[in-house]
Amino acid sequence: MSTHASGSGGAQTATAAVAAAIERHLTVATAESLTAGLVAATLANTPGASGMLQGGVVAYQNSVKADVLGVPADLLAAVGSVDGGVAEAMADGARRACGSDVGISTTGVAGPEPHDGKAVGTVFIGVATPTSVSAFEYRFSGDRQAIREQAREAAMVRLLAALSDVGYRS
Questions:
Q1: Phi and psi (nearest 5°) for 53?
Q2: Which helix (H) or strand (E) holds 76?
Q3: What residue ranges define each of the domains in the chain, with the CATH number in brackets?
Q4: If pLDDT is split at 50, 70 and 90, which confidence band does 9 have?
């Protein structure tokens, strides 16, 4: 579990992720809850992003997570939206919905109140590739915006790592 993610708004890591995806001929899709499009916007702000960013889904409500991304409704009912299994299903759902090689997702609690029994600052980043699906848990601190920015940066770091692990597509 990480406690902090730093960087200049994710721009440097996003630049590296876009370059890695293009070099490997891989595409990326996002599924975002607490970041509400910050991950996709950060990628799209990077020159060359049109060569790798397929699209994204802002799934703030559980109904969108279930209906658009295919997150099992029984999973959402059992654990709530702030959960590693939900993050995994969101990432895989983004990958399928957008026809991409890699899916990245964010779900968590930015505050000001706890949500689904999870403390403010609890964040899960999901990553789906053609061969694996995983989630990573974080505990961030600060105000609502700081938590969302830290989640975005953590997503960029996880995306870059996933792109490096996937390898090349012809």
A1: -85, 115
A2: helix 73-79
A3: 11-165 (3.90.950.20)
A4: low
User: Above pLDDT 90, what percent of the chain?
Assistant: 89
- CB 86, CB 62: distance < 8 Å: no
Q: What are phi and psi of 61, to 5 degrees?
A: -95, 150
140 close to 146: Cβ distance less than 8 angstroms: yes
Tell me which of 6 and 130 has the higher pLDDT.
130
Q: How many residues does the structure list for the chain?
A: 170
Q: What does the pLDDT look like over 92-144, one tens digit per residue?
A: 999 999 999 999 999 999 999 999 999 999 999 999 999 999 999 999 999 99
- CA gap 144, 94 in Å, rounded: 25
Question: pTM for this structure?
Answer: 0.93
> What contacts 24+ positions apart, CB below 8 Å, involve 8-14?
9/42, 9/149, 9/152, 9/153, 10/39, 10/42, 10/149, 10/152, 10/153, 10/155, 10/156, 11/42, 11/45, 11/46, 13/153, 13/156, 13/157, 13/160, 14/42, 14/43, 14/45, 14/46, 14/156
